[in-house]
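Regression report. Comparing outputs from two consecutive submissions.

Submission 1:
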Amino acid sequence: MIHTALPAVSDSVSLAVLVMALLVASFVRGFSGFGFSALVISATALFISPLVTIPMVMVWELFASLGQARKAIVNIDKKRVITLLAGAAIAMPVSITFLHSLNIDVVRAIIAGFVLVMCLLLLAGWALKTKVGTTSTFVAGMVSGFANGAAVGGLPIGLLMSAENIKPEIFRANMIAYLFALDFIGLSIWLIKGLLPWEVVQTAIVLLPFLMLGVWLGGRHFFATSPASFKRFVIILLMGLSVLSLGKSLF
């Protein structure tokens, strides 16, 4: 087994899988704005501990959101984003502590099961007749905050906003602002709790060019398909990866 120069990734096979997952996931983010964190964690779970990839993904999400923020800022629903963050900030410390107390196979199974359920709901086209109120938004933020202990907090909020059928530009702007703040809070909690090794941050920074390349390529929309069709493909891909990860964890 060949070791790598990156301390958070022990061998060349794991590094190759991580780089490929990062490129594909960042392309998806640039093309459709959906599923980046879940793709990276699901694709690498068979090779790298999620407790290593989760903080890496949070670092990459911060940089990706910064690159998209300038064009999105005018469409942000600030009150809603703040309400979501208030709920998330309460739940996330509990989630991070909880995940670190578990066996790694249990962590993999929880993440894979959650991603699978979210994907099934998205694929089913679950819809709401009206926009949810402040209390329900706060509760959704708590669910997202708990999920973001595993860096997949964007999925329940993406599900909620998709179900409300809000305007695409507002959906995108809210998600960019929310995920940036959510992952900033998440990384801060990891740091305060002493759970964020420098080696993980170093590896994430070294691999940033792959993130930027993937987002740039995805933003050029090379595929002759709509973002909605591509999103459906990503959901099915995530479901497959989740089933594989569940199989490894349980059997």
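Submission 2:
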Amino acid sequence: MREILIGVNRRTLIAVLAFCCIAGVGAEAAPADSPPPVLVGRRVAARLGLATGDTVRISAESDAPDPEPFRVAGIYREAADPATVSRRYDTIRMQLPDLDRIAGLGGAVDRISVRLVDPSRAEETASLINEMAYGFEAHTAEELSEKASGTFVVIRRFHLAISIITIFGGGVFVAAIMLLKVEEMRRELGMLRLIGIGRGTILRALLVEALLLTLLGSAVAIGLGFGISVAVNAYYRAFYDTTLTFSRVTPGIIAVSVGISTLLGLLAGGLAALRLTRRSPLELLGR
């Protein structure tokens, strides 16, 4: 058994431990004179070299003269939370009376989470609580999520703007490629016109070729997207030591991407084909 002193700033202690506290840690049986149990997050346990059974001394101030001893009842993996993943909190879970004594808040509580048997009655329950009591406000999880997602809304709009610019630039690039491709077939198209192949047949053939090229490009892009997504997830999961998914290629994204690329490819190929088929066969042959 080892003893390790954990001195933490009071503000950090309250923010981290109060947020992560539980009513009981469910530890294994221990002697009556054993220090109170705590659960230690895997990240802080690895950094400090803690193991189950070790004794740690915790205080609300890093320079406290007499920190309280606690017994490490277990090591747990921190929950995957997008709101805190980049902050890398060192978390410890302890029983509420112990936390209240360490923090010295005299029973003060910042927030209480209530889980309903019937989640569909969340709004009704919140309204009832607000009507019955004063000094606090009840909110549903959806309301809190909307209030906390302002940053993500800005990021989403920023991504939308980038996507629109990218689609516009990609459309211009596809149009230029199709125009050059069709222009290279100028002499072949002139010969087809001279032997009696109609404009409509040539136009449809060019549209089919544009469609095939577009679908081939979409397939390559989808494979590239999957590869980049896997690499992004692997890197950031290892970097933050979490199971969160940072990048995802969904069927909806694939459908929208293929639809937009197909539309742009057909539009660009059709415009290039129309421009070429309107010229006379002799002009196409350079005469």
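Expected: both submissions complete independently.
Actual: both completed, but the second showed a warning that disappeared on reload.
Relevant detail on submission 2: DSSP finds ten helices and five strands in the chain.
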